[in-house]
Amino acid sequence: MTINVAIADDQKLFRKGMIALVNSFDDVKIIFEAENGKQLVDLLQAESEEIHIILLDLSMPEMNGLEALKIIKQSHPNIGVIILTIHEAEHHILSTIQAGANGYLAKNAEPEEVEKSIREVFKNDFYFTLPMLEIMRKGLIKKPQAASLDENESLLTPREKEVLQLICKQFSSAEIAEKLFLSNRTVEGHRNNLLLKTGSRNTAGLVLYALKHKLIEVDHFSN
Amino acid sequence: MTINVAIADDQKLFRKGMIALVNSFDDVKIIFEAENGKQLVDLLQAESEEIHIILLDLSMPEMNGLEALKIIKQSHPNIGVIILTIHEAEHHILSTIQAGANGYLAKNAEPEEVEKSIREVFKNDFYFTLPMLEIMRKGLIKKPQAASLDENESLLTPREKEVLQLICKQFSSAEIAEKLFLSNRTVEGHRNNLLLKTGSRNTAGLVLYALKHKLIEVDHFSN
DNA sequence: AGGTAACCAGGTATTTTTACCTAGTTTGTT
DNA sequence: AACAAACTAGGTAAAAATACCTGGTTACCT
């Protein structure tokens, strides 16, 4: 079976080179080419042949690769998209993966890797190199940094955390005191310690601290 | 060349079955087995043969797979670890990837997939199935709810948003007034309107509102 | 030309928070 | 037994936030 490939890249020479290279692979055929994202999307709509793989450059005029990727993934979720790029910036990689990219290929990659990536994406739906997986890992670690930060949580005593959580629920010190059967002054004391320990200037800082250290979740609140 | 594999799983029957299966593959050999994470780590230290792949169960007594994984990745970063599990919960997948897992294999997978995953991890250092990639993507996506909530943002005027952002940066009304060349009373007026419009009871509520409506980002703050 | 919304700003009063103190009790640890 | 840490709670004051008013200006829309 033949793998049908489309390519989008604004650099004509590079594009033509890639077309020649890809067509030299067994059972792999370039169906059409585009020189920007807009054209790619249009040609894809018009194309009658089924496209399996798209080689997509990120930096293109008119409509860049990321925008095109998002559109394509909506209309043709089954097409495997391999990002072609010189950029190795984490940001690019992460945002393309979020958008649904199936693979990533450096423009200075070996010809063998091009072939491999196409076949892998066709077969397994994705192809990522090891350094990329590392970047993905880093990207994943960013959000649930709870693990790295909840050591600091131990900076706060259980009672302080409890008070902090109630502060984040928009209760005043007096209300918190009532809830916890404490004196207002005690709660104010905890509050002061919280400000000191977290290095915050006021309630706003406390809420942000609580969020950063996963003591509360944004979604839990009603407004 | 032979791929040397170790396996850790507390269920003896399953473990023995996997050993038989894996040994049936060409040029793949089980070197040793462990029935919990602790034993795996110990045996790995003692082993003289080079281990290429570890098949690792997550739920094990004594020391679970995740803990073992972290330890192993520190001492033997080049060993490819494939997680064996019945769990398909996102949480497990994400935390194992963060810990450096090289692949993921459902316990009800086809025997062919077991072989494939071992060879892929050995060759490419990782093997993930499509649904897993989807989960990784979801984990990478920061806050896709933005679209649903930023309609409400128009509830606040530009000036109000500006004031709100400064409130979240822990500035007092007086400081905000100074920054924006306004009277303190004006800022207090904006503050009042913010409380009214957002339905908050105090500053804590304002910060949470700002977060929910993506007017600020948690990561941007220092404490 | 009138209406509306955003923006600015003042008055007055109360509540809440923040700052800087001290100090007793309990609990757990060495 | 001594010690530290957590929890409790009080005093005093200043600063800030909240509540409820009023009113003026500008800009934009119809």
List the helices and strands and how they pair.
The structure is a homodimer of 223-residue chains.
Chain A: E1 3-8, H1 12-24, E2 28-34, H2 37-46, E3 53-57, H3 65-75, E4 80-85, H4 90-99, E5 103-106, H5 111-124, H6 130-142, H7 146-153, H8 158-168, H9 173-180, H10 184-198, H11 203-212
Parallel strand pairs in A: 1-2, 1-3, 3-4, 4-5
Chain A binds a DNA duplex (30 and 30 nucleotides) through residues 157-160, 172-174, 182-186, 188-192, 195, 201-203.
What does this structure look like?
- The structure is a homodimer of 223-residue chains.
- With 223 residues, chain A is an alpha/beta fold.
- Chain A has 2 domains: 140 residues, Response regulator (Rossmann fold); 75 residues, Arc Repressor Mutant, subunit A (Orthogonal Bundle).
- In chain A, 55% of the residues lie in helices and 13% in strands.
- Chain A has 11 helices and 5 strands.
- The first copy, chain A, has a 5-stranded parallel β-sheet with strand order 2-1-3-4-5, sandwiched between helices.
- In chain A, α3 links the parallel β3 and β4.
- In chain A, α8 packs across α10 and α8 packs across α11.
- The longest helix of chain A has 15 residues.
- The first copy, chain A, binds a DNA duplex (30 and 30 nucleotides) through α8 and α10.
